[in-house]
Every structure is written in C-alpha cells, then in structure tokens.
Design a protein that fits this description.
Elements: H1 2-8, H2 16-23, H3 27-40, E1 43-46, E2 50-53, H4 55-77, H5 86-93, H6 99-108, E3 134-135, E4 144-150, H7 155-163, E5 171-176, E6 184-188, E7 191-195, H8 197-200, E8 203-205
Antiparallel strand pairs: 1-2, 3-8, 4-5, 4-8, 5-6, 6-7
Amino acid sequence: MKALYDLGGATGSVNTLPLARRLQVSAASATEMLGRLDALGVVRHNRYRGAILTAGGEAVALEVVRHHRLLETYLVEKLGYRWDEVHEEAERLEHVMSDRMEQRMSEALGNPTIDCHGDPIPDPAGVVAASGYFSLTHARAGERLAVRRVSDRDAAVLRLAHDLGLQLGARVEVLAESAYEGPISIRVRGRRRQVPIGIARAVFVG
C-alpha cells in the first residue's frame, strides 16, 4: 500500500508493472497481492485500469509513510547515520513500529514536519503538507533557489548530491540549463558545479 501511495498518491491509479518493479517482484505476484488487498477493501483493482487506494488503504499507507520518515530522521539525527544509509533500515523497521514508539520518537525529534531528505512527514491524522517544490531539471538559468528535498530512492544519488553540495537548505544559482539531457551548470556554496541530469531529477528546489 505504501508503494501504491508512492507511485500514485492518494488518487492516482497505478498499473501492475511499475508496482512490480518498485517491489522487485514478478507482475504475477503483484497482481496476486492486489487481488488480496482488493478483497480486504483497502485497494480497488481493475486489471485494465490499475489499482487505487481506498480511503482505508490510504490511511494505512500514510501511517507507514509516517513511520518510515520518522525512522529515517531519527537514525540521522540521533544515531549518526548518513542520509544515504537510512532508507533500507527504515524499510525494515516501519512495519513493526508501535503507536507508542512513533509518538515518543516524534517528540524526541521535536515533532518534525519534514524528514532528513526533505520529504513531508504525515501528521498523526494522516495530513500531508503540500510542498510546491520542483525538480532542478525545471529550473531556469539565472534563478536562485534553495534545495528543499532530495529523493531517498537511490543511495548512490544521495551520496553524489551530498558531494556536489546539494544538501537541504543549500542555496543554488542556476548558471545554465540542461542541453540534450546534459548536465545542469550551477553555483552552490561558492563553487561552480556540473550536475548530471539523473541527479538533478532527484533534487527538488523552491
């Protein structure tokens, strides 16, 4: 259900193949899982139109997302993990986190509204704040922006973004836009950098 939320949000329909790729399972296994979730009433699945979360499914997904993002932030801020090390750890722990631990962890962190990668943390009621940020690939030459979020899907991307100075809050001046899927030229922390297009897609600014 969290994968469905990640891929389609609360209202977007998700086809089986991208879901199977996200979960690293076969399309047949993904279809079987969707059938079970449909029977439980947390997903509506149509083999031709894809799958969409019901209200109940969305609530479950958002609770797991909240667990995941609190865990990532706690691991970075309290246990000294790097931001590229925490995604897999949080994936393992998010399903066994009790409500009591969730509350204690949130309080210990000062009840944050974003995680260590800039992703919004759903509040206890499942409300997610809108961000309005956009990918660095859509920035225009001459714009001065701040890094607001970096996708946590790929640890290698996070490491490269860090090495380029693209941490949360960093001020970025766009010097030249991408040409034919080439790098984007920026100035960050006083240094000129060439950001590969694959990295720029994962960096969100505003």
